[in-house]
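#struct-help
A.M.: can someone run this one for me? Single chain, 236 residues.
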Amino acid sequence: MTLGASFPGTCSYGSGFLVDAVGRLLRPGGDGLSERLISSADFSTGTLVADIGCGGGESLLRLASRGCEVLGVDIAADALVAARQVTDGARVLCASGMALPLREDSVDGAIAECSLSLMPNRRAALAEWTRVLRPGAVLAISDVFARHPQGSDQDVSGVTGQDTLIREIYSVGLKVVSFEDFSDVLKVWVASFVFHYGSLDSLWGGACGLSAETARRTAPGYFLMVARKPAGGCDV
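D.P.: on it. Structure tokens below:
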């Protein structure tokens, strides 16, 4: 999720423009869930971990503090400038999560915070992320999901229900290690958004394939998931 400096006035989910009055990033779960996600992944010291959709580099800094080598990937060049500054020169790549400029089996782990739901093709993105993971590597994801997927009358490419998401994870050759529902945290975050920006109308605004009305019907929740690429490799 990219980091920005001001509210854009249209769709703001995933734009990086979700900041409060003093410029602090508003994101589901904040620092607490970022820490939990990284802790759940249990990356070993010295491992190379890619942050897909690294934004301003906050989680890169957390990973580095745990002794990981870090690689930030984001499509927003301005965000990568901020990430390099925050991390004192971490390696970053300006690229889409749909086409990572990395070799097959080249990273020891990856995280994606509020990135998967922004991909134009969720399964293709998961397959691409799996491609660059070494056998035995972990992918840790936090993002929104539809608690009532039957409430949508359209093809929502970014946000889906838990069952579909888990099936897609297995379909690209990964094994789910854990899935945690933190939807209560999302409720608090949405309340913060309404407090700062006045309404929910501009929060979704078509992001993730969601109109504001579809978002209301599908009842978005928030999850943390850890998946592993089998040590014997996988076919995707």
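A.M.: thanks! The mean pLDDT is 79.
D.P.: also worth noting: The CA atoms of residues 82 and 134 lie 28 Å apart.
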